[in-house]
Amino acid sequence: MNNIILGILMMRRMTAYELRSVIGEHFQSMCSDSLGSIQAALKKLLQSGYVTYDEVTENGRFKKRYAITKEGRQSLIQWIKVPIDMGKTKNMDLGKFLFMGLVSKEEQTYLIDKLIASLQEDYMTLQEIKESLMPELQKSEAIDYFREDTVYLDGICDIKETSDVMQIVDDYSQFSLATLEYGIDLAAFNLAWFKNFKEKHLKRMEE
User: Fold this and answer.
1) Those residues with Cβ within 8 angstroms of residue 149's Cβ, 6 or more apart along the chain or in another chain
2) Whole-angstrom distance, CA of residue 138 vs CA of residue 49
3) What 3-state DSSP class applies to 121?
4) What is the DSSP string of 81-107?
5) What residues contact 135, with CB distance under 8 A and at least 6 apart?
């Protein structure tokens, strides 16, 4: 979760509640969006010197607004530069499917149906997120934000080794959208696979 938070904070300053909203809408498949988990991660990042905060007033209440530091940017970039290990993504719940042959046929069918329903819901949620996106508007808002917060702009320009703010936002947007599309394709594959398995399972029960 720490690196996900750092990645989000690369683009703008945020309160814990704003981080929770962004994670809930776009990153639930990667980490928890519980406020407690986010606050615990922020505490560790503060202790490491990877984030800092200032206090802002919102609706008459003081809130901490977090920002990534130079050290936080460097730590995030070092993490990104380590090649992705797709085998590292482990789902212990898959063990339930592995040993599902130990329960009754009726329970097997019930559990498979519940799994398919859950996968269908995940797939639809991701599709709705994609359909709700307005990439050009969001990129325009990001550019406007950087032009107002020149300190933040200087920090990301230093990491990207360019002062072209439009290119910076385009690059970030490209991989954000690609990650969402990967999630949609993966959800579609899982849904189709388990639907196909269910058909074979039901045929076997009829034999």
Assistant:
1) 12, 13
2) 29
3) helix
4) TSPP-GGG---TTHHHHHTGGGS-HHH
5) 173, 177
The radius of gyration of the chain from alpha carbons, rounded to an integer in Å, stands at 21
Measured distance CA(98)–CA(197) in Å, rounded: 13
Q: Does domain 1-89 have CATH number 3.40.50.300?
A: no
Q: Is 183 helix (H, G, I), strand (E, B) or coil?
A: helix
Please say whether the dihedral angle defined by the alpha carbons of residues 131, 186, 25 and 79, taken in this order, is positive or negative: negative
pLDDT tops 70 at residue 207: no
What's the chain's length in residues? 207
pLDDT digits (tens, 9 = 90+) for 46-92: 999 999 999 888 777 888 999 999 999 999 999 999 988 877 666 77
The closest alpha carbon to 3, from 24, 25, 21, 27, belongs to: 27
Question: How does pLDDT run across 131-162, given as a tens digit for each residue?
Answer: 888 788 888 999 999 989 999 999 999 989 99
Write the CB contacts of 129 (distance below 8 Å, at least 6 apart in sequence).
25, 26, 180
Q: Which long-range contacts (CB under 8 A, 24 or more apart) does 127-131 make?
A: 127/184, 129/25, 129/26, 129/180, 130/180, 130/181, 130/184
Q: Which class for 9: exposed (0-12), middle (13-18), buried (19 or more C-beta within 10 A)?
A: buried
